[in-house]
Amino acid sequence: MNHDKTPTGHLAAFITILIWGTTFISTKVLLETFSPVEILFIRFVMGYLALWLVCPRTLKLDSRRQEPLFMAAGLCGITMYYLLENIALTFTLASNVGVIISIAPFFTAILSCLFLGGTRPGRQFFIGFLLAMAGIFLLSFGSSSLSINPMGDILAVAAAIIWAVYSTLTKKISALGYGTIQTTRRTFFYGLIFMIPALALMDFNVSLSQVTSPLNLCNLLFLGLGASALCFVTWNLAVKILGSVRTSVYIYMVPVITTVSSALVLKEPVTMTAVCGIALTLAGLFLSERPSMHQRPDRAGTVH
């Protein structure tokens, strides 16, 4: 790993999570007019077009055998993850989904060991994981009762696993040496292609007036240009520099940012339970993210 680029990797991961943690506000507004799959398709079309404008050069692969990596990344990170998450939200509480999705770094660590040649994460990674889960649990359920819904919770677990697969695929793609913007755009392309059957099944029906409404357009631009085009590039850049495991632990911060932004934007009260939850989550993040001294770089040159 190039240590000179490590701060850049952390900054890219933090920017990504900072934006992803606030997207719920835009999504909440748009759900009054659009269905989840309509929002999903529009934001990634916008993101795909934006990446073309930023980098109009066509990506030429060295080998056709590399194409399945991009297809799998698009299927997992764009289509399946968001569809599973959105469907899970129709069955169970958003707080349940938020906690369950946050276990993605655990699965990422396992997949890194199996497919990237990484060593098994040390004790501090798992202690950090437990601390972060305790903090996220306090943030999510501190003011509400725990509600178990097998179908919704199983779908959320599946989404977390799928995101771990995407992060692992992203690391393999970054090892190919292509530009981050071009590889992200190619992933978006396959994600949109795989999304088409879902559009047909879920009754996609969007009018121009819906999209051009000032409030809707501003929120769609935020999701399309910020949360999709920018964030997937910065996330993939972070994975390229830090590795899939160290980048994935930043997911722990999403509930923290959501809580803080809710207080700032929606004026929701922050309880002492939430403050304790934020402290535990951040402690878990820093402990899990920090590589152990005994760990060695994996085959891709990334410390885990």
From TrEMBL:
Subcellular location: Cell membrane
Regions crossing the membrane: 12-31, 37-55, 67-84, 96-118, 125-142, 148-166, 187-208, 220-237, 249-266, 272-288
Assigned keywords, A-Z: Cell membrane, Membrane, Transmembrane, Transmembrane helix
InterPro entries: AA-Vitamin_Transporters (IPR050638), EamA_dom (IPR000620), EmrE-like (IPR037185)
UniProt domain EamA: residue ranges: 8-140, 151-287
Membrane-topology descriptor: Multi-pass membrane protein
Superkingdom per UniProt: Bacteria
rRNA-binding in keyword set: no
Family: Belongs to the EamA transporter family.
The protein, known as: DMT family transporter
